Amino acid sequence: MKDNKRVTLSIFLWVTLAIGFIFVGAYAFSNMPMGACAQEFARNSKMLSTASPESVDMDSRRLARIDTIVEEYIAQGAIPGAVVGVMRHGKVVYRKAFGKRQVVASDEDMTIDTRFDLASLTKPVAVATSIMQLVERGEITLGDRVDRYIPKFRGWATKESPRDTVNIRIADLLTHTSGLPAYVSPKRLQMTYPYAQFPCRDSVIHYISTCDRVATARTTRVYSCLNYITLAYIVEQVTGKRIDEYAEANIFKPLGMHNTCYLPNAEYAKQTAPTSVEDDVLLRGVVNDPLARIGMGGVSGNAGLFSTLDDLMIYSYVLLNGGKYDDAEILSPRATEAIMTRPRGYEQFNRTIGWEHYDTCSQTGGDLLSASTIGHTGATGTSIVIDPENDLVIIMLTNRAHITDKRFPLDFRSKIATVVGASLR
């Protein structure tokens, strides 16, 4: 009997130990950064509903012209490859990868899950969305003066009234009507602040706060990276979190956008489309924009975000679905409507909160989409076009900067958008 008890006790201990190992192993696996990332990517892919073009009143024959256009531009050497997606009524009807994602040093095929340096798509996706969350929570207003959050931030002294200042407001930054210059090179920053150790966020913010303005606020539109660096800094001043931390916690994580981030790690970078070669080093998983990289250390309001087609489909769906995706609600319906509409008093500038408004023919939005269409581009060769009237999204991601620093062929984006517009019934 004693032997039987010992055997039973031994079996019990082994079973308990085995169960313990299973739980510990499951916990460890679930907390592995890249393992979790890979699993979440597969889950997101399944959650994105797909449908035939005809089921959402689109013509698949006309939509297939996308293939021809993309392949023509690849053959011309304009782009190494591309990932293109089209969604209507919340259904993905076109999702395809073309060409190569790398052609320098070695060849790699483009894949549908390739991660891209979004460049200026960072502005609407991360920054404008964060700002609108703070607006709808009553923490800031669009009319707030910038110097409320950055005390040394200058306005504009007019020639007629040199003692009076036209103050720059948050809405001015969002619509690129602040009068700030378009850009500042890292070289100029280093000359202005010779004792600073770059990256140096404080020096960049000080420069933006005190540099010469090129126009009086609300008189003209000057597209400026400095506007969105300032906005990201305001998010930090209000919330106590840098824009990467805030956007991750309040936008990307709630929506399940697990392949969207700043400062990609080495594993993430392996699946990233390289952008350019700097000092004989291929930039891969490192932000291409010099101001974001050298000035701000990779976390900036003007650039720095990396993402995938499927994650951007989720984000775009949210804007067309009143701020919700499944059980997550990151914005109110009124806030999403405000994002896609030109603010009162700013109609003539054709900018919404974070986006360009295509009320007329556009080099990016094509010739056949509705007058309510909005969109944005990135210098690396990325773009999102959203037509709320037709409940339509067009996303095109390339890494053109990987092979040339010449300006992106705007007619490429326009042709894609026009073909998609022609497919609507």
Can you lay out the helices and strands and say which pair or pack?
Blueprint: H1 2-30, H2 33-47, H3 60-63, H4 65-75, E1 81-88, E2 91-102, E3 108-109, E4 116-117, H5 122-136, E5 156-157, E6 165-166, H6 170-174, H7 186-192, H8 201-210, H9 225-239, H10 243-255, H11 266-270, E7 277-278, E8 281-282, H12 290-295, E9 306-307, H13 309-320, E10 324-325, E11 328-329, H14 333-339, E12 356-357, E13 374-378, E14 382-387, E15 392-397, H15 410-422
Antiparallel strand pairs: 1-2, 1-15, 2-3, 4-9, 5-6, 7-8, 10-11, 12-13, 13-14, 14-15
Helix pairs in contact: 4-15, 5-9, 5-10
Strand content: 5-15%
Level of helix content? 25-40%
Number of helices: 15
Structural class: alpha+beta
Let me know the largest β-sheet.
Answer: 7 strands, antiparallel
End-to-end separation in angstroms reads 82 Å
Name the strands of the widest sheet in spatial order: 3-2-1-15-14-13-12
Arithmetic mean of pLDDT: 89
Radius of gyration from the CA trace?
24 Å
What is shown here, in short?
This protein has 425 residues and is of the alpha+beta class. It contains 15 helices and 15 strands.
Characterization of the model:
The chain has 425 residues and is α+β, with helices and mostly antiparallel strands. The chain has a domain at 2-43. The protein contains 15 helices and 15 strands. The chain has helices at residues 2-30, 33-47, 60-63, 65-75, 122-136, 170-174, 186-192, 201-210, 225-239, 243-255, 266-270, 290-295, 309-320, 333-339, 410-422; strands at 81-88, 91-102, 108-109, 116-117, 156-157, 165-166, 277-278, 281-282, 306-307, 324-325, 328-329, 356-357, 374-378, 382-387, 392-397. The strands form five sheets. A seven-stranded antiparallel β-sheet has the order 3-2-1-15-14-13-12, with helices on both faces. It has a two-stranded antiparallel ribbon with strand order 4-9. Helix 4 packs antiparallel against helix 15. The radius of gyration is 24 Å and the shape is globular. Mean pLDDT is 89; it is low at 1-9 and 15-43.
